[in-house]
Specification:
Elements lengths: L1 H13 L4 E5 L5 H8 L3 E6 L5 H13 L6 E5 L4 H9 L4 E6 L7 H11 L1 E10 L4 H12 L3 E5 L5 E6 L29 H10 L7 H16 L5 E5 L5 H13 L6 E5 L12 E2 L2 E2 L18 H7 L6 E5 L2 H12 L2 E6 L4 H11 L3 E9 L6 H14 L1 E2 L3 E2 L20 E3 L5 E4 L11 E3 L3 E5 L7 H17 L6 E6 L4 H21 L9 E5 L4 H7 L5 E2 L12 H5 L9
Parallel strand pairs: 1-2, 1-4, 2-3, 4-5, 8-9, 8-13, 9-12, 13-14, 18-19, 20-21, 20-23, 21-22
Antiparallel strand pairs: 5-7, 6-7, 10-11, 14-17, 15-18, 16-17
Length: 566
């Protein structure tokens, strides 16, 4: 089912680059989802001995673009698993068991999985509705593994040990789930949260994706014990406020309060830059006094129902009036939820509260793309700070259009952490600041490689730029700014190979490398942010195949081309 596919894929993402094992693949549906998460996947299934089945699975994986991540082994578990582990000297960090469902096969699969699991490992089971399959999970539980149930159509289970943890999943609240008797003693992932979300739903305009992300950030703050209170600016009927307070009550290790700021009497007067996806606020139904929600009829009702009213401090009034007065009382902030929609309201939140956010804390900005003024305020404020926020999209991962070399647009809500900011570093800051950042110098050159192209060809192109710079009298005068998307790790590796090749060549000639250009691999900036960065570039260095931030190809191609002779 779809939610089971989500569990497989999201779990695999947590183990990207590590060894994984699948026992039983059927026609490769689950295999494709696991491999798409970036694991190096070994697959054992006796059905693969049939040439037609093997060809079908092979073709499916090729169509999904993940064939290179997967090794297919015809054979029966546990014997074949033993063979692979010994001949390939393999230990697996992630294991998915979906083989023979008849006893004692699931138990034997669990036993061989435990023998060859890494110290930090996670094992997933499918079809736990069968008592025979549950024998495998029971075995790991009795051996001291942490265990839990995912309430899905066919019921999945998870066992884990060491420094890993399972992904979160919410059972569909529309389904009246009942666990079979043989699973009654297992905890069910987020069963209680599912009921809470169903209760807050009538009290919020936020989508499930935004609520879910807000919950994850709040829970992360509590689990990592990041100091600070929670603050929500823009409350409406109070559903998201009640959810945040519920997280504090159930997960926080330290006392915290939730401060909620809103007029509670409706939206303030729209300004000229207040439009909803191109439609003026008054015409879109969000004019002055709309969305009024008296506390006693809304926020207090749902907060009392969840038993969290004592954790909430409502502050009525305009942000410009209330935030300066309450800043000292609010004190340090671990989580700030900004749902202000309009430019001035969003700027008021950032200017009054940003500097109180713990560097390890989080800020979620709702309606980032829905309201023209909201995104503008976020980027005007980051410009005031002299940084670039690393904005993470809510609900959908940052990615690329399949039919284009340009960065995709961003969704309606984003979140950020001050600890991840890119600092723009210039000569005057070298002595005082040494964080990760975008380094600028006298000659700033932009490069926009298509990193997935044939590596050797790209390395040769990069060497063609790096070698003359390294041979120049003052290579430190150059700053090379690379677009690192969609894979900054690959970008850094490719760049390191090219630089290493040049360094070796120069050393063989007896030349010393005491100075070098500054290189910044920049990933995750969106088009708004690139619009700010492009004017800082003096040149661009064209490559045979390039990728540009969405909509900015013309602006980048207007930059002067760096001529090596100059």
């Amino acid at each position: 089912t779809r939610d089971e596919a989500h569990i497989l894929y999201n779990t695999a993402l947590e183990f990207k680059g590590k060894n994984a094992l699948e026992i039983g693949c059927w026609l490769g549906w689950s295999t494709a989802h696991l491999a798409a998460g970036g694991v190096a996947l070994d697959v054992v299934d006796p059905a693969l001995a049939d040439p037609q089945v093997y060809a079908s699975v092979d073709q499916s994986l090729r169509s999904a673009g993940v064939r290179s991540n997967v090794s297919l082994y015809p054979g029966y578990s546990p014997a074949k698993v033993e063979e692979i582990a010994k001949t390939e000297n393999r230990r697996w960090s992630l294991i998915f068991i979906d083989g023979d469902h008849t006893s004692p096969a699931p138990l034997q699969d669990a036993q061989v999985a435990e023998r060859y699991a890494a110290e930090d490992a996670l094992i997933l089971f499918h079809d736990l509705a069968s008592p025979d399959v549950a024998e495998g999970l029971n075995y790991l539980r009795d051996k001291g593994w942490n265990t839990m149930i995912y309430q899905t159509m066919q019921i999945m289970g998870v066992a884990w040990r060491g420094n890993v943890k399972p992904v979160e999943h919410i059972p569909d609240p529309a389904v009246n789930w009942t666990l079979p008797e043989h699973l009654k003693d297992y905890p069910v992932c987020n069963l209680e949260l599912s009921k809470v979300l169903e209760k807050v739903k009538p009290f919020t305009l936020m989508s499930f994706e935004r609520l879910w992300n807000l919950y994850l950030l709040a829970k992360r703050v509590c689990e990592e014990d990041i100091p600070g209170n929670f603050v929500e600016c823009g409350v409406c009927r109070g559903g998201s406020s009640a959810l945040l307070a519920w997280v504090i009550k159930n997960y926080s290790r330290r006392p915290r309060k939730l401060y909620v700021f809103d007029t509670f009497s409706g939206m303030p007067e729209p300004t000229v830059d207040t439009d909803y996806r191109g439609v003026a606020a008054n015409e879109a139904g969000f004019g002055a006094s709309t969305l009024a929600a008296p506390v006693s009829e809304n926020l207090e009702v749902i907060a009392r129902e969840l038993g969290v009213w004592d954790l909430i401090v409502p502050v009525p009034g305009l942000f410009a009036d209330t935030l300066p007065v309450y800043r000292e009382q609010v004190s340090e902030i671990a989580l700030l939820h900004a749902d202000a929609d309009w430019y001035q309201s969003t700027m008021d939140i950032f200017r009054h509260l940003y500097h109180q956010v713990n560097p390890r804390g989080f800020i979620q900005v709702d309606d980032y793309q829905d309201w023209q003024g909201c995104a503008k305020a976020v980027h005007d404020f980051e410009q005031e700070l002299g940084v670039f926020f690393r904005l993470h999209s809510v609900a959908e991962p940052y990615g690329w259009k399949p039919d284009s070399l340009e960065v995709q647009g961003w969704p309606s809500a984003v979140w950020l952490s001050p600890s991840e900011n890119w600092l723009v570093i210039t000569d005057g800051l070298i002595q005082t600041f040494k964080p990760e950042g975008i380094r600028l110098s006298k000659i700033n050159v932009g490069l926009f490689p298509y990193w997935e192209m044939e590596t050797e060809q790209l390395i040769q192109e990069l060497e063609g730029l790096l070698e003359p710079i390294l041979r120049s009298p003052q290579p430190e005068d150059y700053a090379l700014i690379f677009l690192g998307d969609p894979d900054p790790q690959l970008a850094n590796q490719t760049l390191e190979i090219a630089a290493g090749n040049i360094a070796l060549r120069l050393m063989e000639e007896g030349l010393e490398l005491s100075r070098e250009p500054f290189c910044s691999v920049v990933a995750g900036l969106n088009p708004y942010q690139w619009e700010r960065l492009i004017p800082q570039l003096n040149y661009r260095y064209p490559l045979k195949r390039e990728r540009f931030p969405k909509g900015l190809r013309p602006a980048i191609q207007k930059l002067p081309v760096l001529l090596l002779a100059s």
